[in-house]
Write a structure and sequence with these properties.
ten-stranded mixed sheet, about 375 residues, alpha/beta
Length: about 375
Amino acid sequence: MRSTKRLAAGAIAAALGVTTLAACGGSDGKKTSGEASGSGGKTVTLVSHDSFNASDPVLKAFTAQTGYTVKVLKSGDAGAALNQEILTKGSPRGDVFFGVDNTLLSRALDNGIFTPYEAKGLDRVPAEVQLDKDKHRVTPVDTGDICVNYDKKYFADKKLAPPQSFDDLIKPEYKDLLVTENVATSSPGLGFMLGSVAKYGDAGWQDYWKKLKANGVKVVDGWEQAYNTDFSGSAGGKKAKGDRPLVVSYASSPPAEVIYADPKPTEAPTGVATGTCFRQTEFAGLLKGAKNEAGGKALLDFLVSKKFQEDMPLQMFVDPVAKDATVPPEFTKFGAKITNSATVAPDKIAKNRDQWVKTWSSLVLK
């Protein structure tokens, strides 16, 4: 279900004709240096969704610091990867799992797939993202915001102010302008729906979607089609002659449009409606039954270290959780600072997610 910011950035790069290379040691399934039997010993195995990425120098720094080589086992989207770990509970495929977010967290915790471990350096991580801080079954690693993006040129040409809030999106002047992703098949789509739940509450979010549907919202299966085909502001959308100047994407999408462009523009071609955002937090945890528990603990410590945290933004297009980590200037210059992102408690998501998706589908898709 999850389409992460790294996949989104890769698709932006592809649309701009840029080739990106993964730098994850051992992610191709081949044995890495120091690996004798595929687990334990000098190798620590990180199980992740397909979007995990880290620079080669940072992974080598971990090896130099600890003596462990990281092997990355990518397992599809976050939902699929998590399901595989639930099915193999007690006999995991690796030592650490990365990529469960706050929309899936309760599923992971309720199934007991993690061994508690308090990572070193958590004192540098804000309490509000430590959603399991009493038990430390998971460690927060990054945050990101799902938000509506807009095509700056379209709104400038029309002399129309771009929308900035959920309320704006149902106004007549924005009729037939928004494309979003299917809540049942897309993480950005689900996050946007959860943002409306946070904004309007259990009693109001359904009425909001009725109004959004009446105002001409277009729903497609996933982020790739929405952003790189239908959205008029992206590099891919321009090539595809997209006709929707509003899209549900990420707060980090405008910097990606600049970073991967050649030549680089002086200003991002897209903007962020900062009042439409839903905050995602991603976690990692030590898998119960890990063959290399010591290596797994060392890796969790490293994931919250300043070195790894400062590497993440341009590798996975997410924000660090460590307060002492410096964000790349491209994020500050071309991105939007989100201070009022919506959230929904993980236990509430777990209790209501399936019914919310069914209700949304009956309201919007029929």
